[in-house]
Known about the structure:
Blueprint lengths: L3 H11 L7 H14 L6 H7 L5 H12 L4 H14 L2 H9 L24 H5 L1 E3 L6 E5 L2 E5 L4 E5 L2 E4 L5 H11 L3 H7 L9 E4 L2 E4 L13 H10 L7 H9 L12 H4 L36 E7 L4 H6 L11 E6 L16 E4 L7 E2 L3 E3 L1
Helix pairs in contact: 1-2, 2-4, 3-4, 5-6
Amino acid sequence: MPTQGKIVKWARQLNSKVPFLTSYICRTACRKLAANTTTRTVPFLISAIANSDEEVRRIAEGALRSLNIPEAIDTLLLGYIFTKKDSLHQILTVLGRTVPEDTKLPVPQPYESIGLLCPAERAWQFQNSKDDTLLAFVPEGDFLAGAEGFGVHLYPYYLALACVTNAQYARFLTERRPDSSKLAYWINIQRQDAAIHKENSIYKVDPEKAELPVVWVTWNGAVAYCKRADLRLPTELEWEKGARGVDGRLYPWGDEWEAGRPQPPAGKLKQEEITSVWAYPTTRSPYGLYQMIGNIHEWCADSYAEDAYQRYSQGDLRPPRHGEHKVLRGGPWRFGTPVHLRTEYRKSTVWRAGTPLCGFRCAKSL
């Protein structure tokens, strides 16, 4: 059985862009994945079905049609939920798996039990060793972007299940030990409502706020954290695909506002308050991402340009190079309306700014 390191190596080669050798490298990598099919290789084979190389697609589909391990077929079913590809539906039928029309993500157990996830769910996730961030694999393929719902093709990537927490950012600050000017460049912890405080050389968090998303972070503060963790900020197109999946839905849970907006149990936190990054699991996005809307605004890697989506709709996916304003996506219930909290809604602020409702989630290239 191949190690996880080998599987990831082949997956990266499968998406190689080496001039003159791309087809050879991609096909060779896909053959290796196909010859060593396990639950862990299934997501990458599903991603390969969207590859531009016809031979790669053929190899991947052949490998998926030969699956005979129940956990691997369960992983394939999750892939169908994520991609809605007819070819995967057909393969599942050939394998004898009935696919209900209203197939949805399984409702997860509390975060404390995430280690008990079934093998199929674990196969679609990656835990970053530098900071323990959990990320979901988003396979290659098209999705409907913007208010107009135009098609955009993105290569595979990982996107964090949740925003970076106060506890994670406090550990980062303790490791980096920034001087006062660098600290102010990254985050404003002088605010009365800031959750992080410094004691001697250690940055600490009030226990009840440890799993809340870090806020008052500048764009540079988000970039610095990502760099330290060998991660990065998502582009706004990556953020949008992670939030709405492939079908152009208005909200992470679907098209009906009232059907998804979480209602807390009696006596619990109001929905307008910032909550744990793991709260409201039934409102996750199609890839299982928590609170893409509802908790805070999230920094993206891109500079903001009002006409960016006009270019994207014409196939030019190059992000704006420079700009004082950086993209924010998502948003909190307290300042939002159904229109302003749609998955395609765009917002921005200056990169130096930190606000009480602004944080970030991480991404990772394959």
